[in-house]
Design goal:
mainly beta; about 65% strand; Lipocalin
Length: about 110
């Protein structure tokens, strides 16, 4: 299992630049916080599988005051330098429901 505790991630997508997420982990329990870009504040809570994949729920408040929530499954890819990149398959709920794929890069 990958230890995500203390790892920091940023989106690869240009429109989300500036957003940083910090993950915490205890056993298979995963949680984290993020902010930046359009997200004033966000949090996630979920689990880490033995293969390092993640399944979590998230919620955030956007810069216009909208509250957004959804779920995500992340698949890790280990870089040559030991860093982790994540492929995220997400689903957003509510009035602006959507699905998509995004990518996170670990930053030191």
């Amino acid at each position: 299992m990958i230890d995500y505790d203390g790892r920091r991630f940023r989106p690869a997508e240009a429109e989300a630049q500036g957003r940083t997420a910090v993950y915490r982990q205890d056993g298979n329990l995963l949680w984290g916080t993020f902010s930046g870009g359009r997200a004033r504040r966000g949090s996630l809570t979920g689990v880490c599988a033995p293969d390092g994949s993640l399944h979590f729920a998230y919620s955030m408040v956007l810069d216009d005051g909208e509250v957004v929530s959804g779920r995500c499954r992340s698949t890790p890819e280990i870089r040559e330098d030991g860093g982790v990149d994540l492929r995220e398959e997400w689903e957003r709920y509510g009035a602006r429901a959507a699905r998509g794929v995004s990518y996170l890069k670990e930053v030191k």
